[in-house]
Amino acid sequence: MEHVTHGITLDGVARFVEIATDALSSAREEIDALNVYPVPDGDTGTNMFLTVSAARDALRAARAADPDLSLGDGMAVLARAALMGARGNSGVILSQMLRAYVHHLAGAAIADKPAETIAAAMAEATEASYAAVGTPVEGTMLTVSRAASDAALEVAGRGAARARDVFTAAAAAARAALARTPEQLEVLAQAGVVDAGGRGLCVVLDAVETTATGRRPTPWSAPIGTHLIPVATAVPGDDLTEDGPGYEVMYLLDADDQHVAELRATLAGLGDSLVVVGGDGLWNVHVHVDDVGAAIEAGITAGRPHRIRVTHFADQVAAGRQRTSTRTGRRVVAVAAGPGLTALFESAGAVVVTGGPGRRPSTGQLLEAITACGAAEVVVLPNDGDTVRAAEIAARTAEAELNVSVEVIPTHAQVQGLAAISVHEPGRAFDADVREMTATARHARHGAVTVAARRAITMAGPCEPGDALGVIAGDFAVVGTDLEEVATDVLERLLAGGGELVTIVSGEDGEELAERVAAHVEEHHPHVDVAVHEGGQPRYPLLVSVE
Question: If you average pLDDT over every residue of the chain, what do you get?
């Protein structure tokens, strides 16, 4: 941020994005390692790098097309590109932070009070990060962001501070907060690591400090340990359980920004899976509640809700809205993690986006698939927990820009997506089709088998490199030495709750294992049907589900 004591320039913004992208590129493997399960499955660093690099590339292109591009227009390009390029939860949260930050700066008189303005922008970015999550968990990148913005506000409040002092204080506070994250999350302490998203945010803040001062920040040393046990946090749609709220309420809201904090507080008291995103007087509201009227009344109190959609998870109670789009028909967009899985989804009529651990699709890629399919009604199957939020943002963007109906079924595993698409029926009413696919995905109990890449502590106990690991519903539940024994253990646990159909998807070099496990099911559970598919997915030689 060139000559930051007198104001922020587009040259400075561009330089910051370049430095941040290069820094995240250098640190991406380190950050990925902090967020790795006992297999090399973490991609937090990669997701944050790809998010920022998308913003960099868009800003480069915009400046090349218009050498006189204004600071405000350049920041708008940056914010939208970050959102469209966001990958995974960490990338989406970072994109929301960048959007809030540049939005505040674009509308402020920076030259008058640069330190105070920048500190306020950082505080707004922190609030945006918490709002993006809905149910915040401390000891994560949210905590690191809060520490940085609090330090920025404190320094700016002294009166004589320069903008560079604010950046320096924020970066230092972020590094200190990162070191404390294991004290806030027990799983981090057990694994001996700091939070991966927090580390990525520190890299970004260090890049801001470097841009402002020309100095490189104090080198950071990684702590001992490379394993992070996943912590469950709420994302849109992940609480669709029998004992959870009965209704999903979504609407666009025209409201003054100052009323949104009260709206969030009201909705948080009514239900969960709360997401309120937007700005400049237009907001997108999503919440799961039992009291639909109260959720809508909260919107009326805050402003003018419109395009209201209410879905009962057991029975549809809202009529489909009128549409003026020239698009016709219905399509499914599915994320596939291997060539065989791609073929399976395509054979069922889906438009496939390549994904999976380490190569999760961006919001922009999902939006492009939704746009390109040409349908008036689109169902999205993210088939991965970290892709659900990116899919939600792509869906809302498509609805706002294209006037199409888009529903995201929060499938957290490839086999859940296969179960959902197996009951897809384009001839049904859209809401009924979505309801049936959602219910089928929810009732597909899923698991997987993989191999530990390093020594680590899992939910099932310690493991050594080369150990066979069994996954049930996203958690490591079995540790053993033989893949077939672990696979049969996983299946027996899944079948303990009953079931009529077992689906087995073999990964790379997992065909023989799949055949042996299928034979075990046929021998010991003759009343259960078995379907075996070649998925070709890396890292997981076997994916299984029971319906």
Answer: 83
User: Strands 304-312 and 247-254, how do they pair?
Assistant: antiparallel
- Whether 270 maps to a domain, the answer reads yes
Would you give the DSSP letter of residue 219? P
Q: Count of domains in the chain?
A: 4
pTM: 0.65
Strand order in the sheet with 304-312: 271-279, 282-289, 247-254, 304-312
**Dist CA 251 CA 286 (whole Å):** 7
Which of 380, 413, 442 is the last residue in one of the domains? 442
Q: Considering the domain boundaries, does residue 49 fall inside one?
A: yes
Where residue 525 falls (left for φ over 0; alpha for ψ -120 to 50; beta otherwise) is: beta
Mark residue 74 as left, alpha or beta (left: phi above 0; alpha: psi -120 to 50; beta: remaining).
Answer: alpha
Alpha helix stretches (DSSP H) within 157-195: 163-184, 186-191
SS3 at position 110:
coil
Residues 185 and 258 reside in one and the same domain? no
Gap between the Cα atoms of 425 and 433, Å rounded: 6
- Rounded Cα distance between 280 and 124, Å, is 13
CATH number at residue 266: 3.30.70.1150
| Whether residue 45 is found in the same domain as residue 150 | yes
- The pLDDT-based confidence of 117 (bands split at 50, 70, 90) is confident
Residue type, 331: R
Q: From start to end of 290-384, where are the E strands?
A: 304-312, 330-336, 351-354, 377-381
Report yes or no: 398 and 406 within 8 Å, Cβ to Cβ: yes
Could you give the count of Cα atoms lying within 13 Å of 474 in the half-sphere of its Cβ? 16
Q: Which two tokens stand for residue 425?
A: 């029926």
Name the phi and psi angles at 136, rounded to 5.
Answer: -65, 145
- Among residues 290, 312, 334, the one where a domain terminates is 312
Q: Cite the beta strand spans of 322-368 per DSSP E.
A: 330-336, 351-354
Full domain range(s) for residue 166: 10-213
Distance in angstroms (rounded) separating the CA atoms of residues 449 and 476: 9
Which of 29-33, 460-464, 466-470, 533-537 has the lowest average pLDDT? 29-33
- d(CA 296, CA 310) in angstroms, rounded, equals 10
CA separation for the pair 374, 391 (Å, rounded): 17
Name every residue whose Cβ is closer than 8 Å to that of residue 388 and which is 6 or more positions away in sequence: 235, 236, 237, 238, 382, 408, 410, 412
Tens of pLDDT, residues 283-297:
767 788 888 888 888
β-sheet bridge partners, residue 407:
379
Question: How far apart, in whole angstroms, are the C-alpha atoms of residue 365 and residue 377?
Answer: 18
Rounded CA-CA distance 195/86 in Å is 19
